[in-house]
Design a protein that fits this description.
The chain is α/β, with parallel strands linked by helices. The protein has a ten-stranded mixed sheet with strand order 11-10-12-13-20-19-18-15-16-21, sandwiched between helices. The protein has a nine-stranded parallel sheet with strand order 5-4-3-2-1-9-8-7-6. The structure holds alpha-D-galactopyranose and zinc ion (ZN). The site of zinc ion has 8 residues, from helix 6.
């Protein structure tokens, strides 16, 4: 953390998108600003890809065109999130110094011609990036349109060049002190990998066979830190001229190339780019989970910096969003804590790789279905202005840790079918389906106050974090661990002894072997799960797939057992006698998982705080502050029972005992004052 976060000025729920005026002539700028006003746009992100126009050749900075754009926007009351253009260096930079270009894991240098073509460790790139950042900050820090600074764009480049190798060695020295300590921590006694001198340590470039998992894990940590260092350098350059306005960079949800938890404290505003696939029925739950991650990183409201109002153009097959889905995607983000909805982009590009990406103004213009939907969303967000700023902590925490995910998904584990994000999603789903709020936390966070903490797959757990989790349990918390958790320590070394090694005493069970089930990951390859007759709670019967473990109870309670296959009769779900520590050693079917998790929640006194009496299947409900969002995903109308009369803030209609929601419809309810 670098001091308190700077906040955006209050302005209800923000609405707008990326605006790339450099792609248009002056007459279009004027049309754009008028159309933005008509659509209720409050905020646009400008300058993300403007480097080549702002600095056509080294040190010749041209600002007049952007002065004019900012003045026009300001004249219309539209505020600007002003970006540093450093995500896409101009062609001259690679000519000036080809080593500004990144190198891939095979050791090949990439070329200019796309974007994000920079090596985070290149001194030339950094110097030129900071120079243009300073020029932008100096020129527009006093401009009344500017409310926030947007550093780079989706910082995510990993580079394997010799210069990054040098920086990596510096990073390792700081972490381990000596080569001997590195050898010991990584465990380089295998395969004759022992390093005798620092110079021998390089980035994990492609090699004939498997790489050392501790080496690759540390490289991912290093790569994340290198990007964070770039962010900080630009942020600090901005701070030299503007100590007041918030600075952000747009994140990418659960993106695997950076540890956002370690970044969060440096961002004044947590902002995220979210592109759920409208063709994928799993998108709503995944989007909600990602939004909850952002709200948790922010510890408060966050900003949806980018989304699509229609189709993207980077999937092989790009299904557009219906008006209903577009509205739901936007309002879901608000329900999960977003204080604004911005889209990529305002006006569709006629040229370039993204010529078929949807935009708030499509190629066909403003007299279109899509643009009318955009205008309607502007009105919807205005109607919900009071929701802005509201935030409360959930009662359930779901644990996620980037390094743990990286380590768990290295090759050469017992099964590549046990993946972290699908596990998180499966455990999150029952809460999402019943409208129970969930925060996404890290095992190193302060977990006090959460009634229930879930760790669906926490493979790597440092000694400190293990001690914290133990303390959370012994202080009266309730922790549920999923399969293959607490296996490795902070250096990705497997903990020896019965597993889950840091918890066997509290749990009352000891594991001896991992037992991936024959048949791999398919839903058809299952074994049975049956409740243990002696268990006080009954999770019912069901099936398990993919994964099992050989567990032996000591003083714990067996809740369910495997039925059939090689693991027939072995415990699948165990808990401590005091009901505070739970361990699930498999992937159960969704019904059993839901029964188990909601049962736990109920015993812990977790309840949805909703005016809705029962959530029908296919309906998504989420509470934020004083309002409840209800999204009907079904193709048929539903009636949602409510305990108290409610007002739909979107259309002003008051409902008594039942709220009708049309197919694909969204209502936002506030309990009527009685
Ligand atoms: C990302 C980028 C944008 C744009 C969109 C398209 O989020 O930040 O510049 O390329 O994807 O979906
Ligand atoms: Zn590099």
């Amino acid at each position: 953390m670098t001091g308190a976060r700077r906040a955006l000025p209050a302005r209800g729920l923000r609405y707008g998108g990326d605006y790339n005026p450099e792609q248009w002539d002056r007459a279009t700028w004027r049309e754009d600003v008028a159309a933005m006003r008509a659509a209720g746009v409050t905020t646009v992100t400008v300058g993300v890809f403007s480097w080549a126009l702002l600095e056509p050749e080294p040190d010749r900075v041209e600002t007049a065109w952007l002065d004019e754009v900012l003045d026009l926007l300001h004249g219309a009351g539209i505020e600007v999130d002003l970006a540093t253009p450093t995500a896409s260096p101009p062609p001259w930079l690679a000519r000036l110094d080809p080593e500004t270009l990144p190198v891939d894991a095979s050791g090949h240098r990439l070329h200019h011609g796309s974007r994000t073509h920079f090596c985070p460790s290149s001194p030339t790139y950094r110097e030129r990036a900071l120079a243009i950042t300073r020029a932008v900050a100096r020129r527009w820090a006093a401009h009344p349109a500017v409310v926030m600074w947007h550093v780079n764009n989706e910082l995510g480049t990993t580079c394997w060049c010799p210069r990054c190798g040098e920086a990596f060695r510096g990073w390792l020295r700081a972490r381990y002190g000596s080569v001997e300590a590195l050898d010991a921590a990584w465990g380089t006694a295998v395969w004759s990998q022992r390093y005798a001198r620092w110079e021998e340590v390089a980035p994990p470039l492609r090699a004939p066979y498997l790489l050392h998992p501790a080496h690759t894990l540390d490289y991912r940590r290093f790569a994340s830190d290198a990007l964070l260092a770039l962010y900080r350098a630009e942020r600090d350059a901005i701070r030299e001229v503007d100590a007041v306005r918030p600075v952000t960079t747009n994140l990418m949800g659960f993106f695997g190339g950076a540890d956002y938890r370690s970044w969060a404290g440096d961002l004044d505003v947590i902002s995220d780019d979210s592109y759920p696939d409208p063709a994928d029925p799993g998108s709503p739950v995944r989007a909600a989970l990602t939004h909850d991650l952002m709200r948790s990183l922010a510890d408060g409201p966050w900003l949806l910096m980018e989304q699509a109002v229609g189709a993207v153009s980077w999937r092989p097959h790009n299904v557009p969003k219906t008006t209903a889905v577009m509205r739901q995607d936007a309002l879901r983000a608000v329900a999960h804590g977003a204080d604004g909805v911005l889209s990529f982009q305002w006006r569709a590009s006629p040229a370039g790789p993204e010529r078929f990406h949807s935009a708030m103004v499509p190629h066909a213009g403003t007299g279109t279905r899509l643009h009318r939907a955009v205008q309607q969303l502007g009105r919807d967000l205005a109607a919900l202005a009071d929701v802005a700023g509201t935030h409360e902590r959930a009662e359930v925490a779901l644990l996620h840790d980037w390094p743990s995910r990286w380590a768990a998904e290295e090759p050469a584990t017992p099964s590549e079918h046990l993946r972290v994000l699908p596990q998180l999603e499966a455990w999150y789903r029952p809460f999402w389906e019943t409208g129970v709020g969930v925060d996404v936390r890290h095992p190193g966070d302060d977990l006090e106050g959460y009634r229930l903490v879930l760790a669906p797959q926490l493979y790597l757990l440092t000694d400190d974090d293990a001690a914290r989790l133990r303390r959370y349990v012994t202080d009266g918390g309730c922790l549920a661990l999923g399969p293959f958790s607490a296996v490795a320590d902070g250096n990705a070394r497997v903990r020896t002894g019965p597993f889950p090694a840091p918890f066997t005493d509290l749990l009352g069970a000891e594991g001896e072997e991992w037992w991936p089930l024959p048949g791999g990951g398919g839903d058809d390859d299952t074994v049975g799960l049956v409740p243990d007759p002696a268990s006080p709670e009954d999770v019912g019967s069901g099936t398990a797939r993919t994964w099992a473990e050989v567990l032996r109870p000591t003083h714990g309670v067996v809740v369910a057992r495997f039925d059939g296959g090689d693991v027939d009769g072995l415990p699948a779900l165990v808990r401590s006698r005091d009901d505070r520590l739970h361990y699930l050693a498999t992937i159960p079917d969704d019904v059993l998982l839901r029964r188990w998790l909601l049962g736990l929640a109920e015993r812990r006194g977790v309840a949805p705080r909703l005016p809705v009496a029962a959530v029908p299947a296919g309906v998504e409900v989420a509470r934020r502050g004083p309002v409840t969002f209800v999204l009907n995903h079904r193709r048929t109308a539903v009636e949602v029972p409510v305990r108290t009369p409610c007002l739909d803030l979107l259309d002003g209609v008051e409902h008594q005992a039942r709220v009708p929601v049309p197919p694909g419809g969204t209502v936002v309810l506030r309990e009527a004052l009685t």
